[in-house]
Predict the structure.
Amino acid sequence: MAALGLLSLAGLHDQLKRSEDAAREAREALAYYQFNGFAQESFQCLTLIGRSQRDRGDYAAALGSFQRFLTMAERSQDRLQMALAHESLAASALPRNSIRKPWSSSRRIWN
């Protein structure tokens, strides 16, 4: 019951952009859910943890969390969760790529 409360609170804190609180609560809930074999709840926790890391600009940690999510989804052969993990990985990798290069070159054209 405590893990469910922590997961719910983590989701609320994520919506309120309180990423540190969301990550802390999701980590606590994840420890319980993984130990007891609750896959869906573990996926939710890893999503919240990775999202909070990405929101704080820690893209390497976010990629690690989402890669862990993908590994778990592949192990459980859950195609929906695999797709969500791939989407999260892509969203976390995008800021790390050189997205500014096309922007700066287009600015040169207009100046």
